Each structure stands twice: as structure tokens, then as C-alpha cells.
From TrEMBL:
Name this protein carries in UniProt: V-type proton ATPase subunit F
UniProt entry keywords in alphabetical sequence: Hydrogen ion transport, Ion transport, Membrane, Transport, Vacuole
Key word Glycoprotein present: no
Molecular-function annotations in GO: proton-transporting ATPase activity, rotational mechanism
Function: Subunit of the V1 complex of vacuolar(H+)-ATPase (V-ATPase), a multisubunit enzyme composed of a peripheral complex (V1) that hydrolyzes ATP and a membrane integral complex (V0) that translocates protons. V-ATPase is responsible for acidifying and maintaining the pH of intracellular compartments.
Annotated membrane topology: Peripheral membrane protein
Lineage, opening ranks: Eukaryota, Fungi, Dikarya, Basidiomycota, Agaricomycotina
Compartments it resides in: Vacuole membrane
InterPro entries given in the database record: ATPase_V1-cplx_f_g_su (IPR008218), ATPase_V1-cplx_fsu_euk (IPR005772), ATPase_V1_fsu_sf (IPR036906)
Family of this protein: Belongs to the V-ATPase F subunit family.
Assembly notes: V-ATPase is a heteromultimeric enzyme composed of a peripheral catalytic V1 complex (components A to H) attached to an integral membrane V0 proton pore complex (components: a, c, c', c'', d, e, f and VOA1). V-ATPase is a heteromultimeric enzyme made up of two complexes: the ATP-hydrolytic V1 complex and the proton translocation V0 complex.
NCBIfam families referenced in this protein's UniProt entry, alphabetically: V_ATP_synt_F (TIGR01101)
GO cellular component, one term: fungal-type vacuole membrane
SUPFAM superfamilies, per the entry: AtpF-like
Amino acid sequence: MATTSFKDRNLLAVIGDEDTVTGLLLAGIGHVDKQKRNFLVVDSKVQASTIEDAFEEYTQRKDIAILLINQHLAEKIRPAMDNYQQAFPAVLEIPSKDHPYGDANPSKDSVLKRVQKLFGD
């Protein structure tokens, strides 16, 4: 029974700046169904609460396998990111054009923290 739910997870979702989301939409990840989208474009006017609401929605949907979020946006909702412990959808923090990976503190990267915990570092 559990494999049925994993089989239905066939979408990527993204929370990112305009360039990141546009690039991923051009790559074909966009999906709109019954007024639900699998992407959120974040600019300077979007509040952290809106980002967190989208994060909660995407992590609870049963059709999303992977959620991509720009690292600088993940920092705005770090408590929610740190509290998320589910395997699916997998949440990956990605750099953006204006905020490359070096701008983010590697010690706060959720994937790196999980790998370090796994290896006992």
C-alpha cells in the first residue's frame, strides 16, 4: 500500500526567485491543476509567511516528489525547514544567480547537516 503513494509523486515543486523559477518552468516542471501550482515566484514584496505557507502546502501534497527552494529563501523560514523530517517530498536547497552557494552558511544547509548527522560528524 505504501508504494502506491510513492508512485503518484511525479512532480517537482520550486520556491525561488524569478530567474530560478523561470528557468525550471522552461525546463518543463510547471504544472497547474485545479488552481494549484507547483511553483512560487518570490520577489522582495513576498513576505516570509507566504513562503512558509507555500512550503507547508508543497510538503503536504501527495503528488510532489522533490521540492527545490533557493537557499536565501530557506533562510527566511529556517525553523520550518529544520522541523521538516519527512523523506518525501525531498527538500533541496539550491543557490540562485544573485545568491550563490558561497553566500549561504554551509553549516545551515539542511542536506549537509543530515549527511553530517549520518556520519557522526
